[in-house]
Amino acid sequence: MSRVGLGSLLTDKLPPQAGIVIVGAGIAGLAFARELVARGVHDIVVVDRGYPGGGATGRNVARIRAMQLTEELTHVALACQAKYDRMGEELGFNVLFYRLGYAWVLYETDEVERMRAIVEMHHRIGVASRLLSPDDTLRHMPILRGGDPVAGAVLNDDAIVHHDAVVWAHLEHLATHAPSTVRIVPDTTVTAIARGDAGVEAVETSRGRIETRAVLNGAGGWSSTLNAMASVSAPNRPLRREVLVTAPLRRSIEAAITFYRPNEGWFNQTLRGEIVMGVVDPEERPGVNQRSSWEFLRRTAALMTRKAPALADVAVIRQWAGMYDVSPDHQPLVGPTAQLDGWWQANGWSGRGMLLGPYLTELLAERFTTGRTPPRLAAFDPDRFAPDEAPEEASGDYYARYRRQEPPPSVVEPLSGR
Fold first, then answer.
1. Beta strands in 74-187 (DSSP E)
2. Is the pLDDT of residue 390 over 90?
3. Which domains does the chain have, with CATH numbers?
């Protein structure tokens, strides 16, 4: 399965005890295991209800963008990009990290006005985003010609990574450098969490019981279920997100494109020429759901041909669904919780798991091994929510999620060029 073989890493035998049990073999769980090994932690067991990377990690398009709507997230996103920039060399495996470019296409005047202050904030931090006029938007993205009139765009030299390559890079690195330290047990469902006066005591699974004093909840869309087993209160909820991909075409789309009016949609072209796209259902109800739908195909086809008429004749070859694990402020829960000693969270990624996971689990491993909270990790404290707090409805305005944290109004003139 890899150049070194994963037989020493993957197993169907659950050990009777472990120093830490990581639930979820997605990017958060695998990256945390790798960071713990780098800090000398031994006796790590990762369990997954399916297979490594089989949840949200393998069901996304892995955009690694520095452009964010708040200053704190932009600082963190820059650090995440730097983490990916060096990941291939550190892991000894090409993760297909490349700078395709990222365009936030704007269709209404209020979007443009909001983005002026955002672009100024980006420049202050060191992100060279550009606010484009309508004419410059169409020059940079001719795929939009003939579609709904654009009001402008924000463009930056952001990146994409291949999610499967990232998963295999971590697996191969662990198999090479920690074959006796980390064991991954796939096809294993957690059925209960044993807790006592001193905190976590054990994890009950479909393969038996494993004694441990530390558990990381990296279960993605299933994190709410796992928290409930541990009697830990967290306001996450899973929301389905669907994706489709076309047959390969001549390369013609020079940036990953996202828009939020009239509702959220996005598309980009892969290295092989396929076009990956999706349009979100604003009425999507919370719940675990990985089934794709005809409604998604109809919705995406209708809106994409309005935005980019040149896509009208593309051939769709497959579609799939995954889940966002959404928190009230659309930022993850990363760290220990005071509700249960030994219970650690790495969930609530709200669609940014591939971006944030490797870097924030590096900070989490520092917290786990030293007891000190790195400053950048403090914003993601799992205990920052009130017990009854919940995310807003899916149909809520995307920009409103970040209104409390956005920079003050300013004057940034539209920029042309890239």
1. 102-106, 130-132, 152-156, 159-160, 182-185
2. no
3. 1-98+160-236+328-385 (3.50.50.60), 102-156+238-326+396-405 (3.30.9.10)
